[in-house]
Amino acid sequence: MNQELDILIKDGLILTLEPEAAPIARGYVAISGGIIIGVGSMSDLKEEVRAKKTISADASLVMPGLVNAHTHSPMTVFRGLADDLPLDTWLNEHIFPAEAAHVNEELVYWGTKLAAAEMLLSGTTCVVDGYFLEDHAARAFHEAGLRAVLGQGVIDFPAPGVPDPSKNVAAAREFIERWQGVSDLLTPSVFCHSPYTCSSSTLVSSKELARETGVFLQIHLAETVNEVQQMKSENGLTPTRYLDSLGLLDESTLAVHCIHLDDEEMDLLAERNVPIVVCPESNMKLASGLARLPDMLQRGMRVALGTDGAASNNDLNLFGEIRSAALMHKAASKDPTTLPAAQILMAAVSGGARALNLAGQTGTLTTGCEADIILLDLNHPNLKPMYNPFSHLVYAVSGHEVSTVLVGGKILVENGRLSTMNLDEIMERVRKIAKRVKT
Ligand SMILES: [Zn+2]
Questions:
Q1: Helical axes 423-438 vs 105-121, angle rounded to 10°
Q2: Quick check: helix, strand or coil at residue 62?
Q3: Domain finish residue from 311, 326, 355
């Protein structure tokens, strides 16, 4: 570290989230060219080190940014529109009609801006999104500066931006071609809504497109009992076995929810190295069930956490998701030792990055990784006293303690304020769009 650094974060309580790594009580993180080039104790930092910008983390905890591996960002506009309903009723009688009537480029763009603001301010630096008119979500994320995997929605119904379903896979191809290589932070993908809303030929063509272009295929899988029954009666197979019969299950198919799986299906997903995204709060709110996260982790499966969209959560705060995951599995197993704090935190952050094939880039504070870093202000009553930072991050933090956020070494939040977005303007735009939705 002889050269002048771009950013030096100093005097902080550092959690690298590397396996078995102990917290560093008073440490530093050195950043140059958007990359972490050193992490350690202040006592090991040479006095002559200079930086263009120094961030004092004196009363702060410094850790990797959070990974939200599943959401539909524009749905922030539908937050609280319809609650307390079963998924089928919620989707068919409320969400699908609202989307058909109101989703346009403006809604997708401003809804995504609001989502990006909410996620950054609660510590998420990497997100996986899937929706329609995804170009406008991509534009919003590009301007906001988050790291994002973005999926153009594919469904066998007329959809916003793709009124003719026979063109849905072609639209996904155009999206991928437009966004591949645009930014180091953005990765396009294909987002098939589900096995029950896409035909077998749509599913197979989407996977072929994903393989050909080297991107993820995202898909909701085994979310409800109804889905399993419907797929069994139509195809004679459960949704998971059905996707396997079509050759869709591999290390680049991001399977979201995975609640209704038998042991054999779980073994199959593990054998195929399928990355799984579990969305505890959305699953609880829609009473879809409980994905067997502890069993998945025990099998060594790659698992990430996601919030799902704001219409079924109803926030995009990943700290809430981490806490919910820990608590619900303790309650379900009647065993308080299930998913201890350090395990669920590591699973969500460094494990989340691994599920997205981003280990070595994000998810840990490691020399050579991208500088995706958050600082939490520890001067809050809910964080006093502190014996164990892992415990606080899972059981006591609300997310509002996040004071500073860096993605790729760029400061996107400083002293609790967004530096790349005008939050007042975003909220006003969304308020106006919501007025049309409500009438
Ligand atoms: Zn979803």
A1: 130
A2: strand
A3: 355
Residue 385 has pLDDT above 80, yes or no: yes
Look over the chain and give the mean of its residue pLDDT values, rounded to a whole number: 96
CATH of the domain at 17: 2.30.40.10
Looking at the structure, tell me whether residues 39 and 139 fall in a common domain: no
CB 318 within 8 A of CB 326: no
Indicate if 345 and 374 belong to the same structural domain: no
CA 371 to chain centre: 17
Q: How far is the CA of 135 from the centre of ligand 1 (A)?
A: 18
pLDDT higher than threshold 80 for residue 34 = yes
Cα of 418 from ligand 1 centre, angstroms: 26
Tell me the CA–centroid distance for residue 3 and ligand 1, in Å. Answer: 45
pLDDT given at position 251: 98
273 CA → ligand 1 middle, Å: 21
With beta carbons less than 8 A apart as the criterion, state whether 186 and 178 touch: no
Count of other CB atoms within 10 angstroms of residue 196: 18
pTM: 0.97
Tell me which DSSP letter residue 90 carries.
I
Number of domains in the chain: 2
- In angstroms, rounded to a whole number, what is the distance separating the alpha carbons of residues 169 and 174? 9
Q: What are phi and psi of 30, to 5 degrees?
A: -105, 135
Distance (Å, whole) CA 371 – CA 364: 9
Residue range(s) defining the domain that contains residue 15:
5-64+364-418
Angle between helical axes of 134-144 and 105-121 (0-180°, round to 10): 40
